[in-house]
Specification:
The chain has 290 residues and is an alpha+beta fold. It folds into two domains: 3-164, Ribosomal Protein S5, domain 2, CATH 3.30.230.10; 170-273, GHMP kinase, C-terminal domain (Alpha-Beta Plaits). It contains ten helices and ten strands. Strands 1, 2, 3, 4, 5, 6, 7, 8, 9 and 10 form a ten-stranded mixed beta sheet that branches. Helix 2 (107-122) packs across helix 3 (129-136) and helix 7 packs across helix 8. Catalyzes the phosphorylation of the position 2 hydroxy group of 4-diphosphocytidyl-2C-methyl-D-erythritol. Residues 65-150 form the GHMP kinase N-terminal domain.
Length: 290
Amino acid sequence: MIYTWPSPAKINLFLYVNGTRLDGYHYIQTLFQFLEYNDTLKIIPNKTGTIKLFTKKRSLININNTIFCAAKLLKYKAFLHKNISSHNLGAKIFLKKRIPIGSGLGGGSSNAATTLIALNKLWNIRFTLPELANFGLEIGADVPFFVMGKTSIGEGIGEILHPIKQREKWYLVVYPNIHILTKKIFSSPELTQKNRKSIKKLLTSDFSNDFEPIVKKQFLKIKKIISILSIYAPSRITGTGSCIFSEFNNKKSAEKVFSFLPKNIYGFIAKSVNISSLHNILYKRKNMFY
């Protein structure tokens, strides 16, 4: 059985920090929004017991890659909870990378979620989506969102999800070719913390990102791009950066602004969706949910 699986990008329409936990993680409130833009994983299961990853970007083939982490974790959970030996759980995974690394678009977390869901099916382990989401939290705070597959407000460290329906819009996403370390930005002494708001107040207030002032101060190129884009449409960073997104009501407006940007600036235009492209595939393939 061979399937090709999408691994979608996300943006954070808002992101606020509410406090710090004893383990160093931060309490946040954010609005995760899916985009119709994704990496792709082609997965060929086998019984070798090993995971082999193939991709044009050789630097991604390392033990810290979230795809390896997710496969290894799923094998362990299969043995722990289902008494399934990991010796027969193997796969060849071919990654086509489109989502920039360190961009705030969630590529690594999305890759992990797609790996968990796909191998859960291909290996016939039969964990439920909530179970996979809980496992994914061991890899990263955003992984549960990608596993569950619906545009959501995230609380806690991002794992407490409240699915909502957002009006679908078009986004111009610009990548300034800067790789920002999330841990470094979260540990900034300049990071402010806000009181927690109700979901109703979150959705009726102007959206912003608590990390943006820090990122703009440290990376003047990002500050300049936001300044330029803000002339035409609401624009801000996603996550802790480095990507900047501008919001439009239609594709034509996004394309027009994109045409104004220098040709050496990388970017793309994508529509927002309330259900991830991965879950759209799941709904089309029968017997995906257990």
